[in-house]
Amino acid sequence: xxxxxRQIITPFRPIPLDVPEGMAANEFxxxxxxLNDLVHNNGLLVNxxxxxxxxxxxxxxxxxxxxxxxxxxxxVLNPLGRPVRRTQVPDDxxxxxxxxxxxxxxxxxxxxxxxxxxxxxxxxxxxxxxxxLTSPGVPSIRMLHNHFIVFPKSTLQAxxxxxxxxxxxxxxxxHSLFQAYMREVYREFFERALDLQIxxxxxxxxxxxxxxxxPQGLPCWEIQGGVSALRDVRFxxxxxxxxxxxIDFYRTFFxxxxxxxxxxxxxxxxxxxxxxxxxxxxxxxxxxxxxxxRCINDAKYANAIxxxxxxxxxxYRNDAGQWVVTISQNSIGNAIxxxxxxxxxRVPDADSYEQFEPQxxxxxxxxxxxxxxxDLGEGIATPYWAAE
Length: 388
Prior knowledge:
Elements: E1 6-12, H1 25-28, H2 32-42, E2 43-46, E3 51-55, E4 64-70, H3 91-111, E5 118-125, E6 145-152, H4 153-158, E7 160-161, H5 167-170, H6 174-193, E8 199-202, H7 204-207, E9 220-223, H8 233-258, H9 271-278, H10 282-297, H11 299-304, E10 312-317, E11 323-327, E12 342-348, H12 350-373, E13 378-379
Parallel strand pairs: 1-12
Antiparallel strand pairs: 1-7, 2-3, 2-13, 3-4, 4-6, 5-6, 5-10, 8-9, 9-11, 10-11
Helix pairs in contact: 6-8, 6-9, 8-10
């Protein structure tokens, strides 16, 4: 069986939502009005922490697909001031969010137990650094949200091959910067900076999905104990430490790109590791010079740089049934599924979508019931389903 990224077709019901005249779509998607529509037409559950579980109107998969968004649209009107990564979320909110993640992932495993039949993934994306400075507005729904997705492997196997040069699969060339020039120091930084007990480094071969050949070149960690480890608060601390380590590495590198011999960034998480592993390391500083020199002489390349950390972080099940954590090195706007080599082409087709909708909603409402029973929120009524 050949390994190659796959492109699948996912039908959706067209959304009857009008963007006001003179307003870009990505600007409107950040508005309280759009989030109000999301709640009333697709909302499943909400809690006092402003975490909203909802059906994906423009989904990645019609087998199983839902998201939780930290809906700060009513409380933080400045889109650029909203939390967009886990490290910016208050501890009490993150505590509830982690429990919601654990319950939903356990449900997906229960419903789709065979790794030969289904690819399961869950994770979140940073949205603050994935937009060029000169583009109008800011990224769509600039609020931290995560995804819970199941793809049947039979669908992936039957899908056409995706273009391997697609920039969303290659991170626009900046992914290869980390891989080609800093692979060893990048992984050494994680190994020495982080105190991990539940997460164990994995080889590229062990972490890769054979059907797609992805992830490619990304550091991966096995979740020792499998999904049951998600019930341990230490897992979520280690999951956050992976993100913090990535942010420290990324910020330190691009500070050196921006300013030669720059001091350590302020408010880093692992200052000793930065000083000992990065700031006196030629394998780290030499690539910074290469990027800096190119920025000075190549305006288009310089404009494409994401100076602040941009990433996707996810939990997924590999072919052997192991559960894995990975984090991208510089996502320029690609979908979370593309880290695993799955490109989704969404097409408006209400009739096709309606064939999947009953089974999809049955699963989403069961997830909601379990979350309500765990005191993680209350159901929302929409024109399509009741509050209970």
